[in-house]
Description:
Layout: E1 2-9, E2 12-19, E3 22-26, E4 28-30, E5 32-33, H1 43-50, E6 54-57, H2 59-65, H3 68-73, H4 76-81, E7 86-89, H5 93-98, E8 102-104, E9 107-111, E10 118-121, H6 123-133, E11 137-139, H7 151-178, E12 185-190, H8 196-207, E13 211-213, E14 216-218, E15 222-225, H9 234-244, E16 254-256, H10 262-270, E17 275-277, H11 280-286, E18 289-292, E19 295-298, H12 318-322, H13 325-333, H14 337-363, H15 367-379
Parallel strand pairs: 4-17, 5-6, 6-7, 7-11, 11-12, 12-15, 15-16, 16-17
Antiparallel strand pairs: 1-2, 2-3, 8-9, 9-10, 13-14, 18-19
Subunit structure: Homodimer. Within each dimer, one monomer is responsible for RNA recognition and catalysis, while the other monomer binds to the replacement base PreQ1.
Pathway: tRNA modification; tRNA-queuosine biosynthesis
Cofactor: Zn(2+)
Amino acid sequence: MVFDLVCQDGNARAGRLRLANGEVQTPIFMPVGTQGVIKGLDCFDVKNHLEAKIILANTYHLYLRVGIERMRALGGLHHFSGYKGNILTDSGGFQAFSLGGKRKEEGIEFASHIDGSRHFFTPSKVLDIQYAINSDIMMVLDDLVGLPAEEKRILQSVERTTQWAKESLEYHAEQKIQNPSMPNHLFAIVQGGTDSKYRRLSAQSLTSLGVCVDGVEFGFDGFAVGGLAVGEGSEEMYQTLDCTTPLLPIDKPRYLMGVGTPENIIESIQRGIDMFDCVMPTRNARNGTLFASFGKLAIKSPQYALQDEPIDKECDCYTCQNFSRAYLHHLFRSNEITFHRLASIHNLRYYLNLVRGAREAIVQRRFGEFKREFYSKRSG
């Protein structure tokens, strides 16, 4: 994996991420395909209507639904799904956290939400799952903590996350030595709640980790900021990013996990974040909330029943180019599944256009103006 920092405008960064399945320009938003599919869309939609160069898939769900051996036999997720772009997979730690998994020093024990069967994720186990998926970018197993949390628990989370990251890096280095052509790359995850002291401890501990195997040095290919959007307010999130991102290597990509709103993304880009994912665009689409340059609209409202115009006149998506608010209102009110597809295409294209516009502004060194225009349109 190669990451080139193309330009900076203040702390905002424009980069180029070169992976086995194509080049990704950053800042980038990754549509979420939890079970190997973006709900309501297929690989044709992703390639042609979204032009998405990287998506996120979920280790926990693919492990339970497909399994390691079956995924290997089917040639990994790229072949299985037909998606030819890049795939980032999380470690499954968030799902184990949200389902009340029991943490131990060796890993996380949890019950399947499907059939109640018991499972145990360790740092090496989640990497084995991601190797079978053949993820372009793999996340280490981390110990996520909900907020607010006691200081003792946050410190435990940082220490455990660092230990698991070290075990993950050692295991990954061994696999790379055995098979140097492996296309899989490994990101660490910074924890620490909203406490600058523990964020600093986590970042410094992870960035200092390195492994030497048979004379070859290995380090993490990128760094994620995890443990946010789990109960804290937006200002706390931004303050946490202010103290965390300067501690991360300038020559490695920075990924903010599970965030968020368009405003969150713009604010985080300004603070030096390169990569994002969130279920918000597709989840809100299915519920009838559509994002636009002027804010958002609830398509179920009767006011749209006779509006023969696109969702957003500034949008170039397939939906806006071909269908009216009135038609989408009708589909939603009629509970037609086609609405889910058209609304998801629009919301995801909006997010992808947003980060694409931010990148262009950074390259032109006018990100501050871009941000002001973004807020001005939404307040008008």
